[in-house]
Amino acid sequence: MQASPQILVVEDDSGTRALLLRFLEENGFRCTGARNGTEMWDAMERVTFDLLLLDVMLPGVTGLDLCREVRRRGSVPIIMLTARASETDRVLGLELGADDYVPKPFSRAELLARIRAVLRRGRILDATGGGPTRGRYACFVGWRLDTGRRELLAPGGESVELSGAEYDVLLAFLEHPQRVMTRDRILELSRSRLGDVFDRSVDVLISRLRRKMESTEAGELIKTVRGAGYMFVPDVMRE
Amino acid sequence: MMEVRQAMPRILGWLRIPVPWGQRLDGRVMLLLLGAVMAVHLGSIVIHRNQAVEVAQALMDSQLAGRLAVVLRAVRTSSPATQAASATSLSSPTLTIELSHSAAITRSNASTVSMAQRLQEMAPSLTEFQLRLGDRKITSSAQEIQGTAVLSEESFINFTARQTQTVSDRHTGLVSTSLMTAGVAVLAIAMMRRVTSPLSRLASAADLIGRGPAVTVAQDGPVEVRHVAVAFNGMQARIERLIADRIQALAAVSHDLRTPLTRMRLRAGFLADPEVQRAMDADLDEMEAMIEATLHYLRVGTEAEAPKRMDLATLLETVVDDAVDAGQDASYSGPRHLAVTVRALSLKRAVANLVGNAVVYGTRARVSLEADEAAATIIVEDDGPGIAEADRQRVFEPFERLDASRGGPKAGVGLGLAIVRQSIEQENGTIRLLDADGGGLRVEIILPAGRHTSSWSSKAL
Fold first, then answer.
1. Which of A61, B89, B262, B323 could anchor a disulfide with B328, C-beta 3.0 to 4.6 Å?
2. A137-238 — its CATH code?
3. Predicted confidence band at B12 (pLDDT cuts at 50, 70, 90)?
């Protein structure tokens, strides 16, 4: 039995912080709260955290600055709490090395799903030696996935719209190319989006991905392995 | 009807149909000017005429005096037998002479006496005769003087001097007046146009306020007009600042509401009763949607998203897939790929909005995409009650809601279609509401393949 994960919540609004701590504790996490950057660094001196929940809007040093600094010092997973629809915060956060973002106001289920997914991915990538330090772009037969902006670019350079779930599935494939993966494995690797939506079967998501990435030049990208699962066929280069 | 009445002056302006002259500033000033010019001109004609008549009379008198002196002397020196014949022979059209036993003029009055004296001063030999003159008869075309010179008690010379008027007649006066008036009119029109054109520009500018970006009026023309233009620009700046302040206040409130909303979200999780918890979450969803819509509406145009090259077909597919995942009946048909240059987030939100409306007011959303050289057309159709022709313009106005007639739920703040129109206009596109085949609403979004949408690479499979 693993010890329950340690989460550091950096949030300046005391009401929100207290409620977040209580909510996370009720869901089996151990939590510490910090009001600002100074308190955050103090807490990180004392305890090794499994995850940082970092509000973008902090007085003084912003969450984005803290995110960059934390990433420079280590690889502790970070989830940014951003204002919804603020595209700049979201992109900047991811580019600065945050693992995910949750727009405020968030639903409880969404927050839990993201936290669990990031923790799980961290463990899996630790075990396989992978990690977020390996290049921002994943390239295959002319396609390009920008993991900073979470954007897929077609060989012609145009951005191809992916849902969050589709992005996660594609990323799972790109991190394990030319390896047969079962549906459960794919689900486990990619389950970072809204729980409800994600209960759609993996098959549906993969058929949508195939449709969106259909091109005559590259041929079949995702192959069905009868009775086993799926395999991503092309070579993947990290840049 | 109200709108028609308000639009009338503008329509007249477009068609260049003039408003009645007397009601226009330049018209009034011009009429005044022309009236004054005509009065001066006519007055000067009258004065000129009178002077000319006097000159003509003096001329006639001196001629008459000279000729009369010669004639009278000639008649008197003739033998009594030939006197009558020589008098007749000395007659001319301008001076008729006749020897008679009776005087044509028997008495004089004060004015004719003075006239006779004047003639005698001009020709001193006339003093040898007693000279009686009749009143000068003046008609419009000629003047005539009758007179009698007394030769002896029984012999009189009656004469009639006649002169055709040489003064410029009435017709030339009229012609010159009209020519001059016309010239002044042309000049006046040209000048008044210059004077009033800043006013017309001011009116057009005032008419444009609130219909698009800020309008600045050129601050030129006469001082008064310039003052109006300056005041107008100042007023517009103040209005804009006022609106900007309000928008900022509304945005700030909407923005700050997120913090208490986040707390309420978390608190709702601690409610023991799952039924209450669900209801609370539903209320919170609704509030959140309203705040997001308001913020989005206010943000468009200020925090502009940059256009980027993207695949429009996959964007539509994603919107449809999201709706399907949420348990709705939605479908997409059209090419698999279509590269365009648009603001993807804002366009996606617009289409998602239309799809959301389709499944709320109808039961299904049919999204399709058509593309040719000139444009890409996104079509969203539903099987709902549609929107009446009369309401189709109104639904795009912010905070307008047709829920009563459309039979939909009373949620939201009525910004949905306003946001849709905003984002489509941002792409230089157009949006139209039509009837779908077999009832329901058909929304067409036409994105031109112009400056903002690069060449198509349609890879329909």
1. B323
2. 1.10.10.10
3. low
